[in-house]
Amino acid sequence: MQGIDKYLTLVGRSLRALFKRERERRRYANSPYAWLFQPYMGEELVALACQVTPGETPVLSFAAVVLNQQQIHTSSAWVATLADLQAADKTTLRRHRKLYNTETALSPSTDTLRALAEFIGNRPLIGWQLDQQLAALNSAFRIHLGFGLPNAQIDVAKLHQRQLRRLHPLVESPSQFSEALACWQVPATSTSGLLGKATASALLYMRLQRDMT
Fold it and tell me: Which domain of life, per UniProt (predicted)?
């Protein structure tokens, strides 16, 4: 019964997300953002990695990098720290830029979020534990643009667990990102900070896709 309850909970959550996305698609049908809600017909995806320090003035750092089935385009990645630059704690800002290797600190304004939305486009999003990665970023989008990112999403953590259960049903799947990379022999990237995590998520996704096919 516990398994059935969990399944029904997941189905209900998915349906609520679909209904919400459809409401937003209709709401913005005649806006400049309408194309973001349309199904993507290409072969590219966007890997995301985010880190947030919560508080009255939260500081959010993120990396977004485009990939396809053959290549990760790190040269055109978007890496930045978003914060109210006047009100945010300066020590936290410095720590974010040092730890997560973000060269740019930006105010989470309408113009900034619009530019990020245009960079991501309507391509599917991938990432490790993607719901957690997107929570703060979606909050910023809702505040400044009125909607969260409507893109299709692929959680690499769930993909990893599903594939490992298929191959080794009696083996408990590792839950840490570093353990999953080691499990699938995905090499450590030479890129540091959040861009490195986004790139590693993309590499893990590509490896899992090859194994599944």
Answer: Bacteria
Residue extents of the structural domains in the chain: 1-34, 42-213
Top-level CATH class of 42-213? alpha beta
Confidence band, pLDDT 50/70/90 cuts, at residue 26: confident
Q: Specify which residues 63 forms β-bridges with.
A: 49, 79
pLDDT of residue 92: 95
Q: In terms of C-beta density within 10 A (0-12 exposed, 13-18 middle, 19 or more buried), how is residue 153 classed? A: middle
Tokens of 92: 């936290």
CB-neighbour burial class of residue 143 (10 A; exposed 0-12, middle 13-18, buried 19+): exposed
What span, in angstroms and rounded, lies between the C-alpha atoms of 194 and 158? 20
Beta strand spans in the chain (E): 45-53, 59-67, 72-82, 105-106, 125-127, 153-155
Q: What is the pLDDT of residues 170-190, one digit of tens each?
A: 777 768 999 999 989 998 776
Write out the two tokens for 51.
Answer: 């880190």
Q: Is the pLDDT of residue 49 over 60?
A: yes
Query: In angstroms, rounded to a whole number, what is the distance separating the alpha carbons of residues 105 and 181?
Result: 30
Single out the residue of 42, 52, 45, 25 nearest to residue 146, CA to CA. 25
Residue 59's CB: how many other CB atoms inside 10 A? Answer: 23
